[in-house]
Fold this protein.
Amino acid sequence: MKKIIIGVMFAILWSSASVATKFGVQSASPLLVANVRFFIAGILLLSFSYLFTKDKSYRLPDKQEWRQLSIFGLLNTTIYLGLYVFAMKYTAAGIGSLAVSTNPLLISILSGWLLNRKPSSAEWVGIILSMVGVGIATYPLLNNHSTSALGLILLSLSMICISFASVYYAKVKWVLPNLLINGWQVFLGGLFLLPITLTFADFSVTHLNSNFWFSELWLSLAVSVCGLICWFYLLKIDTIKASLWLFLCPLFGFFFAWWLMDEPITWYTYTGVILVLTGLFIGQRKNKSSA
């Protein structure tokens, strides 16, 4: 039950990122939106970890851990979220959520390659059913919203990158607490992105209004802090089963897009929801042989 609650909470928080990002890029350059988000989340997590915890495990990383955190932050924050935020400038919120649904397949393939953990037949059935369901639910959005080729390319690259990051995270034997791992990887990711932001961001379109700050605070606190803590918990249990929760993200994303951005919900959406939930249920079950 605990895993289910955390999985659903992760899907809700993660799916809200596309709509929050759409609001943010209306007021500022995508690179600036991403960089401010990373620094807010990283500073808050690190400050809490070092100032308000007495556990001795909350220490500075050693040399090997700095290298691991840098690689993870580069993949999971700088490249993935940097590309994703920039892509949302050129795509609809629903299509941005759809891109997340490709992660389970990519993570399954990469896990079999890098972790020698091949998906079971039930997990493959769950993946296929869920991808079909997401495709059906998203069909009206593909017809009714213009999406540029650049947006699709950036989204595809970002999904490949976060899949590598997820498998890398599962492969490393972390000793640091999750709060520190998340805090340092987000902060380091922001540092790596900063030179690019200062060089290429268009500061002339920046408006530091309530729309911008609400977007930043939500992306930082709800998504980068709470959402990633849930995601790391799920990854530590099982990489492939964790990835199946990503199939719920487009469905919650459709709701947020309908509620906040007037994107349509049709019978395609309802059909997709049923298929995704069925696929998620099948994929999350333990095989009789493994049990």
User: Anything to note?
Assistant: The longest helix spans residues 210-237. The radius of gyration is 18 Å. The CA atoms of residues 81 and 158 lie 7 Å apart. The mean pLDDT is 85.
